[in-house]
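Extended Data, panel c. Modelled sequence:
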Amino acid sequence: MKKILYFIVAISLYFGLCEIKETQAQVEQPVKWKYTVTKVSDTEVSLNAIASIDDKWHLYGQFFDEGGPVRMQFTFKDSPNYEKIGKVSEWPKPHIEHDDIFDIDIQFFEKKVTFSQKIKILSEKDFTVEGELFGQACIEMCVLVSDEFEFKVKGVPGAGTPKTQEVPETSENTVKDTVAITDTVAKSDIITEKDSLITPKKEGEYILSERPKTTPHIIKENAGSSEKDNTSLFWFFIIAFGFGLTALITPCVFPMIPMTVSFFMHGNKDKTKGKMQAIIYGISIIVIYTLPIALVIGISTALGGDSISGDFANWLSTHWIPNIFFFLIFVIFAASFFGMFEIQLPNRLISKSDEKADKGGLLGVFFMAFTLVLVSFSCTGPIVGGILIESTQGGTFIKPIIGMLGFSAGVALPFTMFAIFPNMLQKLPKSGGWLNSVKVVLGFIELALGLKFLSIADQTYHWGILDREIYLALWIVIFSLLGVYLLGKLTFSHDSKVPFLKVPRLIFAIITFSFVIYLIPGMIGAPLKALSGYLPPKATMDFDLEKAISGEAKGNICKKPTYDDKLHLPNGFMGYFDYYEAYQCSKELNKPIFIDFTGHGCVNCREMEANVWSDPRVKEILQEEYIILAMYVDDKDITVNEKYWFTSEYDKKVKKTLGKQNADIQIVNFNKNSQPYYVLTNCKGDVLAEPRAYNLDINEFVKFLKKGVKEFKKLNKK
């Protein structure tokens, strides 16, 4: 059980350490792929994925026990044109080593490896085999490896029904280099010609061209915004600092305060020296928590500039795999805080650190701090993991560092302050059962926050299992149980009996039940603006009283928008989700376009919609003066009609889903991959005002919209 818990914590920390960076440039990956087709017999071919692995990196294989690193996986799209024979084989044989962390034998490759899948051809006509691969490559750090592949296969005259050939699943099914290559994936066949969305018909007149075969240029020139959202990082630091202070009053940390302060004050005859050591102790705590994060980010930047690409950042934030994983991690953290088990580090590691702390001196002070971090891990680990997981949703590489800096400062500052002013210790409450109550309260909070990740996956893939009403119902139950617990009517295994209710506990119970009452109107459509970033959008509700009273949605449209069965605009707006339809309508109605680059999992987008878009002034301008175009960059479910696929100018890959197309349009046109991002333009591609990002200043947003209308009318007169 402990090994499983170590693995879960290690993986959650890994995801938190990943660098998420805004970029337009192609990111160099440690593994590069080449795809070939080799002939095996008259009716059989081998599809080969050849991986070239950078020096010092290693790529994990397919065949070793679960519970360790990410194994290579290959997914082939079903087709009546062929039948797979056996499993994907590997050549040459992998290196095999025992991994002490996971306690299993792992297989990996260095420099070069070929993965091959035999198929039997069932078609007389030429066809394409499509699929995806997924795995992990590591050095001191790890990155996930993924790619989409296509194999061009020639048909065989008279191809008939196959006889399935069973091949055992083993890494020794090899493909020899001596087989002649008869056909190679022709990636050069992908159209790369540049085309503009807007084509001049004659001087002074513009019409929309046919769908471009490369990334659409919806503006004439790249127009990035100089506006930066530093306030969100500041508040993230404050929140992380608050969690650091909260971690201080857990059973693993709180009893250490008087012991540590006593050592610095009574273990040194020179009180000044003791205070200096206390300061060094506090700084050491901050360094121990923050430095590893900074080093990982620094190393990844030095190795490749962007070891984590924009595509991977999008995958991490919105794909169902990491979001379901994060949800389960939060559930496990909550169970740990409820007393089901403890997440602990190996005792040997703690003992070694404690031995070095006994040697004294500055190094001894550092290892005292390191011992505190290790001993308190069962209480602080879930909090640290939660902060790091939350930082992956931020879209900026600096956010994990800010989070750890805030958390560690919250832990370290009280130790230092009590050592400098020891009289303050007398005002501290005594240790007792209330410390475990703090853990349990944190468990309820972890459980509630974990639903956010399940909700992101649900919205992105349109599963419809966690609509706004269900989400709110779960929160109401969770926080109601928290209120009952605070009243002493619900107890867990490690709790002390509550003979009577103390005033602080009563106050927290009142606050909790008041919050529950605040949530209840949301079940019938109340906006709940304070929680807009954490709740599913109101469009997911089966019944919205506000919408029923206000009537039908309003907005400028020319025809029924495509994808409106799965995508929706907030606050009673009508608009488009396809850039081509919006630009056509802009030409027809002679109105400017309000482009909203958004996402199902975008917390800041929901806050903007709830707090800014809902303002009557903003709502009036958008509904009367603009054509609204919502471009969801993280949608995984909607596949665009094949004739509208285009090849990216950003990463040269064919974009087939609506989310990938919209993300590519934002990166290529605006050099941005963060949301929300708002752009005002006309049908000729002129940007009417400097694009804006997340900013809750309603007056500034109104000025932004009015400036766009003014500039639009000005350009129309020319």
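The longest strand covers residues 127-138. This feature is highlighted in the accompanying rendering.
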